[in-house]
Specification:
The protein has a single domain, classed as Rossmann fold (3-Layer(aba) Sandwich), CATH 3.40.50.150. Helix content is 34%, strand content 25%. It has helices at 8-15, 23-33, 51-60, 94-101, 121-140, 157-167, and strands at residues 41-45, 65-70, 82-86, 106-111, 143-154, 170-176, 187-195. It binds S-adenosylmethionine (SAM).
């Protein structure tokens, strides 16, 4: 099937003035798993250009906080509840910078991180695993017991072992492919709820 960047979700996003078609994915996941609530503190990893943040901001409301972190700048969003941070999740100082803007414990975290692809399969896979594992570490240290983590993974060797890592500290872990995610894309989402609090630092 030919890749159609301007599919119906792209057109819909344009019509509705959304920053990215990605917003429909988090909306679908939320409708199914009912994770977001008013007043929550949420961290988003890999948040540019801010499509998910726009959706989450409206769900957590002005009494909540959503901190979006990315290598790239994110154009202005309503504050409160939005805050942004330009950072590399692999940088050892990033955890402290997150805490300064969004002190733990957090109610939930989401990651739509996608590494820049080199085209060399082994390198791309290694980069993808490195950022996923770092994301999980950052999240586990900050999440409140009972909290949730939703993250994008790519179907392949990394999926099974990452799923097992999540199962060791969340009571429920479900794989989900939103309708708005292109069928031709290897991306899939893991929705982990009921964090056991085993790695929290706070
Ligand atoms: C698919 S986009 C996120 C889209 C976003 N959820 C939205 O709704 O607009 C993936 C993002 O991951 C970011 N990213 C990749 N590697 C990263 C890293 N090491 N640290 C921080 N962000 C990273 C990229 O810059 C990119 O903006």
């Amino acid at each position: 099937m030919a890749f159609n960047r301007k599919d119906s979700y792209y057109q819909q996003a344009k019509r509705e003035g959304k920053r990215s078609r990605a917003a429909y994915k988090i909306e679908e996941l939320d409708q199914r798993f009912k994770v977001f609530k008013k007043g929550q503190k949420i961290l988003e990893l890999g948040a540019a250009p801010g499509g998910w943040m726009e959706y989450i901001a409206q769900r957590v409301g002005v009494s909540g906080i959503v901190l979006g972190l990315d290598l790239l700048a994110i154009a202005q969003l309503p504050s409160p509840p939005c805050k942004t941070l330009i950072a590399d999740i692999l940088d050892p100082t990033t955890g402290d910078r997150i805490d300064a803007l969004l002190p733990p414990p957090l109610d939930g975290a989401v990651s739509d991180l996608a590494p820049n692809l080199t085209g060399i399969k082994a390198t791309d896979q290694a980069n993808s695993i490195a950022i996923l594992e770092k994301a999980l570490l950052l999240v586990k240290e900050r999440l409140a017991p009972g909290g949730f983590f939703i993250c994008k993974v790519f179907q392949g060797d990394e999926l099974k072992s990452f799923q097992l890592q999540l199962k060791s500290c969340f009571s429920q872990v479900t794989l989900a492919k939103p309708k708005s995610s292109r069928r031709t894309s290897a991306e899939i989402y893991l929705v982990a709820t009921g964090y056991d609090g085993s790695s929290k630092r706070q």
